[in-house]
Design brief:
Number of strands: 13
Strand content: 15-25%
Strand order of the largest sheet: 10-9-8-11-12-13
Order of helices and strands: EHEEHEHEHEHEEHEHEHEHEHEHHH
CATH architecture of the largest domain: 3-Layer(aba) Sandwich
């Protein structure tokens, strides 16, 4: 985003094989490498960590694990600096380890750093109390905190006790060239689409139960995952097999073709920090029905679709029926995405933020 406008940008990409894990014995370990990719300087490294995860309850072992990660980040930074010079600012695009590693570099080099919070691991209860304390320290030390949605900032206030007012909302962006506007398809029956991994958090079961009460439409489900067989069985139990099509996984570059085949998008997820598929649908000109599960709360305007309760099949069915009965201005949807989520918009917002700390 910045490199294409002539700014000098470097990326540090560290991977850690934790013990025990399937990758600890088999996963490759690489020395630090530096490559030039699309005008970006990319520094990569992969190492094995020797502090067993189950023993992280012991404070010295956990601190040793953190230091191992920080040492690698500092070595990677030194390799970058030797070749490119010191950067003016560091931007960590990760709420947990990215922020922690950015803090280590910032403390040693006295370079300002900002952090974009975008991960769902805190709200989903995946991160334990030790990691929460470490992340909180790294976030509170940042020169500025950003969040991809206002609801995520609220969640981090509740979980990490960092005031939501400390976060500036800077959403994710979309490349509109990859999602061209298309006219509505000529389907025999109104067709909803849902594109997501087939996992529990995405709410597919709620959607299928809702579909029973929306008889005048079909559903196309894109994506794959461990719940596919279970969802196919549920379709049979609910007598939906003739109305539901499972497309399987779609290559990322072909996602736009999915939206071109549907009349509207339905998003029954249980939790989202953002919801990039909603932007993709709206950019294509398809209205959406989405749960109030976080990120969609910010994205979906009255002109874009309908918000419904999480895990409420009856409310979801009502929302789907309401969407089908209303006339939608697809051009207004596309314009809304262009005004709020394009690279130019987000780049300008970030540049203003960076300038305040230089």
């Amino acid at each position: 985003m910045f490199a294409e406008e002539g700014y000098k940008v470097g990326v540090l990409h560290a991977r850690f094989h934790d013990l025990p894990s399937s990758t600890w014995l088999k996963g490759p370990t690489d020395k630090i490498t530096i490559t030039e990719e699309n005008n970006l300087t990319v520094v990569r490294a992969r190492i094995r960590l020797f502090q067993p995860g189950p023993l992280h309850r012991i404070p010295p072992i956990y601190r040793s694990s953190v230091r191992s990660r920080e040492r690698l980040a500092l070595k990677m930074y030194d390799a970058y600096k030797q070749q490119n010079g010191a950067p003016d600012i560091i931007h960590a695009k990760c709420t947990m380890w990215g922020a922690i590693l950015a803090r280590a570099i910032s403390n040693r080099e006295n370079i300002p750093y900002v952090v974009t919070a975008g991960a769902s691991v805190f709200a989903r209860g995946i991160v334990g109390p030790r990691e929460q304390r470490t992340a909180k320290q790294a976030l509170e030390s940042a020169n500025q905190l950003l969040s991809v949605s206002s609801t995520l900032a609220d969640d981090l206030e509740r979980i990490l006790d960092i005031p939501a007012s400390n976060f500036t909302t800077v959403p994710n962006m979309i490349d509109l060239q990859n999602f061209p506007f298309t006219e509505s398809p000529t389907n025999d029956k109104f067709t909803f689409g849902y594109l997501a991994n087939l996992v529990a958090d995405k709410g597919h079961e709620t959607l299928l139960h809702a579909l029973v009460n929306v008889p005048n439409c079909n559903l196309m489900i894109g994506g794959d995952g461990p719940l596919r067989a279970q969802l196919e069985r549920l379709c049979k139990e609910l007598n939906l097999s003739d109305r539901v099509t499972f497309t399987g996984a779609l290559p990322r570059g072909e996602a736009h073709t999915f939206f071109g085949k549907i009349d509207a998008f339905v998003h029954p997820s249980r939790y989202e920090t953002f919801g990039i598929v909603l932007l993709e649908s709206l950019a294509t000109g398809r209205p959406v029905v989405a749960t109030r599960c976080g990120g969609p709360n910010d994205i979906v305007r009255e002109e874009d679709g309908i918000l419904v309760a999480v895990d409420d099949a009856e409310d979801l069915a009502r929302g789907m029926q309401q969407l089908m009965q209303k006339e939608w201005d697809s051009t207004e949807m596309r314009n809304g995405v262009e005004q709020r989520y394009t690279k130019d918009t987000i780049r300008k917002q970030l540049l203003e933020i960076y300038k305040t700390h230089l």
